[in-house]
Design goal:
The complex is a heterodimer of chains A (690) and B (551). Chain A is mostly helical and 690 residues long. Chain A has helices at 3-27, 36-60, 94-117, 124-143, 147-165, 172-203, 208-216, 225-242, 251-254, 260-269, 274-281, 288-311, 315-336, 339-373, 390-393, 395-409, 415-434, 438-462, 469-474, 480-491, 509-513, 530-564, 570-576, 578-585, 590-662, 669-689, and strands at 66-78, 82-92. Chain A has a two-stranded antiparallel ribbon with strand order 1-2. The model of chain A has no long low-confidence stretch (mean pLDDT 89). By secondary structure, chain B is mainly α. Chain B has two domains: 1-76 and 98-169, no CATH class; 295-551, no CATH class. Chain B has helices at residues 10-27, 33-57, 101-120, 128-147, 151-172, 177-203, 219-225, 238-241, 259-275, 284-291, 294-319, 321-347, 352-372, 376-407, 418-421, 423-436, 443-458, 460-467, 469-485, 501-519, 522-550, and strands at residues 4-5, 8-9, 72-85, 89-99, 207-210, 216-217, 231-234. In chain B, strand 5 (207-210) and strand 6 (216-217) form a beta hairpin. Classes of the chains: A mainly alpha (690), B mainly alpha (551). The interface between A and B is large, with 50 and 55 residues.
């Protein structure tokens, strides 16, 4: 198949869910079955095409990058720059081809699962339409070969996430969670955008390949390595938001307000992994300092969220924190330079974490229906303390859930073992090379914790006795449309899909297809070169494997000892460490902290500014108006009483004399003669006296 | 390029069609309410068609800005010619119209928004005849400002616009309409006075030569041709004012980087900044919006605010490029303050309309910032943002009108759960709100992105601060959506009806434009591209000249 044809197929893959979206959002209610089949068909075809594209890409064009570009905006001859065109486009390299399959596969399975899970929902067709817009925007991120389209897809997945988290928007907590997700993501996106501005400001292109070439040629943003590091870290800010990394991880647990299949698709397998994908895409641009920031953020995230997961009782919350923790792993993996390991973990994690969420969805679905039958609206269907013994009633859900749990815990023969081991070996190599010994320590500690808390939910949910026998009798296994996707994902959680050697993921086809790209940054600020790192990575492999087996085994053992054999009392432990327990239960008080500093302070600021606007600025305006009015009133008074007063006074005085004297004007000749004689006499005597 | 219909230039048509409509409306007896409405609609409809024809015939390769040859559809006639006035000399004022890439988009926007505003005026009840007459006069005033190339004519149209607006707010407005109308009037009049002073100062600083037929020659052209048969006069011609060679040596505004030029620039800037409105000259806007009836808010936000930024790009920058370069940082600062401050104050509002008003201040701050970048990307972003803000904010105010017509309140906290009750309304409002918060795929994103991208090349720190606004914008927009649509429906709103056909007719086309330009902005960007490259080049050259002068 020719390269052009493969690119057109990729664009078709991109557009199929969008077409589905447009049809379903406008005509969904009028279509038979509210159009669920249309969206599901669209994404299924996209999956088949993706498989074809992946196969062709890996067999025919293994080392090439296929592209399809178009001029989007032409600025013509720009002063100071010269001809400037905004060229956008799509590319398929091995990373993108694998990602295409991952996204469409999980999306297809989730579509089918949703047909069962969302049955009878009030906004059934809207739900499927939004799944379509999500798939479209996620595929846009995957296929984009430039920062602009990446950012577009980036924001659009945020939109679909917002819409789907708030699917049941009558609940205040759901609409709050949607807002929280969108706004928290936007904080990261500001950083991402500033990073784009730095790169575009220097290179006048959004194309990643072009940017890499420029940097490789020695052109640095604003001529300094500092700005290059800044650009890398700022782009990573986008990943901090989207992949729920510390300190912006707080939105993801709340996002569990959305329907569970959405949690599986968006908030576990694909969208949250977009941050990891972004780092992988921009990896050549990252300086050693930027990678160090990425490593520490990833490690911190993995650690914090794993500790929180231990104390949570809501099954979806545990899985949410476990997702954050695993994303931290991937980010840390990329940060230390274990590029293919980080990406490999993204792929394997997508399968088993989607499975875990869908499995929990199956459990919640069953619990919900049982509670509904009992007219019990107080018991929380998601609280693992209300479950237990479900193995007997829901065998498919149990066995698949167990496989996923083994995979996430890193037990041999599973996919998770391969990828996790590879990351851990990477951290060990990194520790050896740079002396940052804390990173591998965190890595192994979190591996142990993961095994512990995951088995905790398996035991509390599926083993032991159910808390209420009456409810237990009402619980049923989910329908085929929900269990078949679980079985497919369970199969995909075994090693053989990824590597023929069950002990070494690095030999697998995914790792081989996604080799670490060469860095383009100047050697003085670059991290350890690929050869040096691969050497160390290889050396660390067996150490890491035994260590990770040991910590995972220990975690599982403690989980059984505590929750199944009851050798250790969880309540006692919680009591003895009540401060710590409370701290973990309350998620390190991040929400409270942000509630006070971020939300409280900014709301306060808005109030202050509102007051400032109304009182000060408008006060000045109204004040000058008032002063003008008073001045005019005074002028008016002055005009009326002083100036006009003077005029009037003159008039009055003359009037007075006029009136006084007019008495003499009688018109009688006798009077005039008498007055004249009198006057002459006065004059005469006056002269005489003088 | 010439374009005339029935022997009259197309720009004259597009400007004066509403006045013709006004005369006809005034002749219709006031009982014939439908005739008044439909004939108003017919005239703005014709205006829209002419505006569209202009866009179709527009040559994208011509720059315009400071050359008359680059201007299109130019119409020129002697308007006022007084042979000899003591001290003033011969006063010769031209009726000079023309458009370039900067104004053609605004012509289209004005026609479009006026059309929508007339449809939205259907529910006006009080003295219909006077209302439509004033609305049409206002339309002519706005259009005239965008097509005039003579400063005097520009000023006349600018003032023509003021009076109908005053009455439209003062008579058809809400409870505090008189306060709002006076505030609007005085604020803008204050700006006009400054503009008038600068205009007169410019008049006495610029001279050109004119022959017996009224053909104008710049000083350089006249020198080449020889000055016999030519008369030296002062002029209001903007294009001549943009030619540094025309300044009378030793006149007030001659030279480069003089205090008088700076002062004139600042005066002019304040005059325009009041219209934008830029912090700290913005407080007339929220009051005017809250009191104005919906269609007037739509025109105010959709077109009137653009006059400020348009004026700066049309007049201030080409005439005073040196001062622009000198004050660019301060202008960008005002832009950034408006962005952040507007967004934060918007967040604190509980009145729906006031919230949108403050969001306008924030969004126009983006235009100011993009404009101050002085490069093509930033200025393209700015002009495109002017267009997009026009369509998006028009939608937002129409949306407020829709709910106000039904509920008779704008209190955001009184609503909730309307999504289920009014699904069409919810869909339209979501598009408008997401466009306003800069979601990719909708037009607002592209213009904001390019404004910021361009500005970043000139002012790094300021732009980063400005970029933070996108978080606040998302905050108040989503919060508003939540307060209106999500949650449960209060008992008192259970009888609300969804949008009717008329409301769809005005909102759906705007939504389509927003989505289309969000995906494929080139049709509009191509219109302005050559002109903005030319304007950036002009600033570039001026920068060189300033540097030479400094040495």
């Amino acid at each position: 198949m020719s390269q052009e044809l493969l690119m057109y197929l990729s664009v078709a893959i991109l557009l199929l869910p969008l077409i589905g979206f447009v049809k379903v959002i406008f005509f969904g209610k009028r279509l038979p079955r509210q159009g669920d089949w249309l969206e599901t068909l669209a994404i299924s075809v996209a999956l088949l095409l993706s498989l074809l594209v992946l196969y062709q890409k890996l067999t025919l064009y293994h080392a090439e990058t296929l592209s399809l570009n178009f001029t989007w905006i032409d600025f013509h001859d720009v002063p100071g720059i010269g001809p400037l065109k905004i060229i956008l486009g799509f590319s398929i390299d091995n990373l993108a081809a694998i990602m295409l399959v991952v996204v469409t596969l999980i999306s297809t399975l989730v579509h089918f699962f949703s047909i069962g899970y969302m049955q009878g929902d009030v906004r059934y067709s809207r739900y499927f339409a939004f799944l379509g817009i999500f798939s479209f925007s996620m595929l846009m991120i995957v296929l984009a070969n430039n920062l602009f389209l990446l950012y577009v897809g980036w924001e659009l997945v945020g939109l679909s996430s917002y819409l789907l988290i708030g699917h049941w928007y009558e609940k205040k907590s759901a609409s709050d969670a949607g807002m929280k997700a969108f706004i928290t993501n936007r904080i990261g996106d500001v950083g991402f955008f500033v990073g784009i501005m730095i790169l575009f400001g220097t290179f006048h292109t959004f194309g990643l390949t072009e940017i890499f070439e420029q940097v490789k040629a020695g052109n640095l943003p604003f001529g300094s390595e500092w700005w290059l590091t800044a650009a890398g870290v700022l782009i990573f800010c986008g990943a901090i938001g989207k992949s729920a990394q510390f300190p912006l991880h707080v939105w993801l647990p709340d996002a569990m307000e959305g329907p569970t299949p959405v949690s599986a698709l968006i908030h576990a397998a694909t969208m949250v992994a977009a941050g990891v994908y972004l780092v992988a895409r921009t990896f050549p641009l990252m300086t050693a300092d930027a990678l160090m920031v990425i490593t520490y953020i990833g490690a911190t995230t993995a650690f914090i969220s794993a500790t929180i997961a231990v104390a949570q009782n809501d099954i979806k919350k545990v899985l949410a924190y476990s997702t954050i923790s695993q994303l931290g792993y991937m980010v840390m993996g990329l940060g230390v330079g274990a590029y293919s390991a980080g990406f490999f973990h993204l792929v394997t994690h997508a399968m088993f974490k989607a499975g875990l969420f869908l499995g929990s969805g199956s459990v919640i679905h069953a619990m919900h229906h049982a509670l509904h039958h009992q007219h019990d609206h107080h018991t929380d269907p998601q609280d693992i303390r209300n479950m237990g013994g479900l193995k007997a009633k829901m065998p498919v859900t149990f066995w698949t859930f167990l496989i996923f749990t083994l995979a996430i815990s890193g037990v041999p023969l599973t996919s998770g073992f391969l990828s996790k081991d590879s990351i851990l070996a990477g951290t060990l190599a990194f520790g050896n090379l740079t002396g940052h010994i804390l990173i591998p320590i965190v890595g192994f500690f979190v591996a142990g914790l993961t095994a512990f808390y995951m088995f905790r939910i398996v035991i509390l949910t599926f083993l032991g006795e159910h808390k209420s026998p009456e409810r237990f009798s009402l619980i049923h296994e989910s329908p085929k449309v929900m269990t078949v996707p679980l079985m497919i994902l369970a199969a995909l959680s075994f090693f053989f899909f990824y590597s023929m050697n069950p002990l070494d993921g690095a030999e697998g086809w995914i790792s081989q297809a996604t080799q670490r790209p060469e860095t383009v940054v100047p050697a003085s600020v670059a991290a350890a070169s690929t050869e040096v790192f691969e050497e160390a990575h290889h050396h660390a492999h067996y150490t890491a494997m035994f260590l990770s087996l040991a910590v995972a085994g220990l975690g599982i053992l403690i989980a059984f000892a505590t929750y199944h054999w009851k050798k250790i009392s969880a309540d006692k432990v919680a009591e003895n460490f009540s401060g710590l327990h409370k701290f973990l239960l309350n998620k390190w008080y991040f929400d409270e902290l942000y509630g006070v500093i971020a939300i409280g302070a900014s709301l306060r600021l808005t109030e202050i500014l509102k007051w400032f606007d109304n009182t000060i600025i408008d006060g000045i305006v109204n004040g000058s108006g008032w002063i003008t009015k008073v001045t005019s009133a005074i002028s008016g008074w002055f005009d009326n009483w002083v100036i006009d007063g003077a005029v009037n006074a003159v008039a009055y005085i003359s009037g007075f004399f006029g009136i006084a004297l007019k008495k003499t004007q009688t018109g009688k000749v006798q009077t005039y003669v008498a007055l004249a004689v009198f006057g002459v006499m006065v004059f005469y005597f006056a002269m005489r006296l003088l | 390029m010439e374009f005339s219909i029935l022997g009259v230039g197309a720009l004259t048509w597009v400007t004066f069609l509403p006045v013709v409509g006004m005369i006809i409306v005034l002749m219709i007896p006031k009982e014939q309410r439908n005739a008044i409405k439909w004939s108003s609609l017919a005239f703005v409809g014709l205006q829209l068609i002419v505006a569209f024809a202009l866009v179709m015939k527009f040559d994208k390769g011509l720059a315009g800005i400071n050359t008359q040859e680059g201007m299109q559809f130019v119409e020129k006639a002697t308007w006022i010619d007084i042979k000899s006035v003591a001290w003033f000399g011969r006063i010769h004022i031209e009726y000079l119209l023309g458009v370039d890439g900067l104004s053609i988009t605004m012509v289209l926007l004005t026609a479009l928004i006026s059309f929508v505003a007339v449809i939205s005026s259907w529910t006006i009840d009080k003295s219909l005849k006077g209302y439509f007459a004033l609305l049409l006069l206002l339309d002519t005033g706005m259009m005239g400002v965008f097509v005039s190339l003579d400063f005097f004519l520009f000023y006349v149209f600018w003032e023509v616009m003021l009076l109908p607006m005053y009455f439209l707010i003062g008579i058809w407005g809400g409870p505090r309409r008189e306060y709002a109308a006076i505030k609007f009037f005085l604020y803008t009049l204050f700006g006009s006075v400054l503009m008038l002073l600068v205009m007169i100062a410019l008049y006495f600083s610029v001279n050109v030569y004119i022959d017996a037929n009224g053909v104008m020659y710049s000083v350089t052209e006249a020198m080449q041709r020889g000055t016999e048969g030519l008369e030296k006069i002062y002029t209001f011609n903007m294009l001549q004012m943009m030619n540094p060679g025309n300044f009378v040596p030793d006149s007030l505004l001659a030279g480069l980087d003089t205090s008088w030029r700076y002062l004139a620039f600042v005066g002019l800037f304040i005059g325009f900044a009041i219209k934008i409105p830029s912090f700290p000259f913005h407080t007339w806007l929220p009051d005017a919006h809250v009191e104005a009836p919906t269609p007037i808010s739509v025109i105010l936000a959709g077109v009137l605010l653009k006059l400020g930024t348009y004026g700066i790009m049309r007049i201030s920058i080409p005439i005073f490029p040196d001062a622009m370069i000198h004050y660019a940082w301060w202008i960008a600062l005002l832009g950034v303050i408006s962005m952040v401050y507007g967004a934060l104050v918007a967040m604190a509002q509980t009145d729906f309309k006031k919230l949108i008003a403050y969001s306008s201040i924030s969004h126009m701050g983006v235009v100011t910032l993009g404009m101050a970048s002085m490069n093509t990307q930033g200025m393209t972003g700015a002009v495109f943002q002017m267009f997009n803000h026009g369509t998006i904010t028009a939608m937002l105010f129409l949306i407020v009108g829709v709910i106000y017509d039904r509920a008779h309140t704008r209190g955001l906290n009184e609503f909730g759960g309307l999504m289920n009750k009014m699904p069409k309304y919810a869909a339209i409002m979501s598009i408008a709100f997401f466009a306003a918060l800069g979601l990719p795929g909708l037009s607002g994103f592209i213009s904001e992105a390019f404004s910021l991208l361009g500005a970043f090349q000139t002012f790094r720190t300021l732009t980063i601060i400005g970029a933070i606004t996108i978080v606040f914008t998302a905050g108040y927009m989503l919060w508003t959506l939540q307060r209106v649509f999500l949650g449960t429906l209060p008992e008192k709103w259970k009888d609300l009806t969804d949008m009717d056909g008329r409301e769809m007719v005005m909102l759906v086309p705007l939504a389509v434009i927003i989505i289309f330009l969000g995906i494929y902005p080139s049709p509009v960007l191509d219109l302005m591209n050559t002109s903005l490259n030319h304007l950036a080049e002009l600033l570039h050259t001026a920068q060189g000249a300033v540097m030479m002068g400094a040495r």
